[in-house]
Amino acid sequence: MNKILDFEKLKKVCLDCKQCNLSKTRTNVVFGRGNPNTKIFVIGEGPGHNEDIEGLAFVGRAGKLLDAAFQSVGIDTNKDCYISNIVKCRPPNNRKPLNEEIQSCSSWLNQQINLINPRIIVLAGSTAVESYLHIKEPISKIRGKWIERDGRKFMPIFHPSYLLRNPSKEKGKPKWLTWKDLKLVKTELEALKK
Ligand code: URA
Known about the structure:
The protein is α/β, with parallel strands linked by helices.
């Protein structure tokens, strides 16, 4: 069957998910947003208030910053990326998702990644790195370096909420480092087109 049809089918089933307790407090399941026919998949932590209301990933302040950061290196998040999260439902009060929530949600993310088959996966923040790659290192240590697994390239970056709290664009600061990391992503994307 056609990949987009499969993706839409997966989404339809996921929107009804009741596999964990987060389903009891969510407004909407946040499946993701962007282009499923793309080479870049971005993984965040979990939906916040705005995402829960709108049912779309990264549409609040952190999302706007993420969009702008990608845009500054010539990547349009809606056209060139698919964006989703480790957990698809908002954890109450934006707490970190629990291990059991991450576990029960992982099959949705794995199926999304299998269907999209991205060459590049950008991991936003340490929860994404820890949950998806099982690497427990401070994000400040592992960001900006490619990790290769299963024929895909992973780029850990600071979470945009952290950048909201650290707004300086000065050389060497988190925002400047993120711009550098996303430049590497853009270079890799261009290389894939050759
Ligand atoms: N933070 C995340 O990690 N994901 C979202 O979708 C929004 C904010």
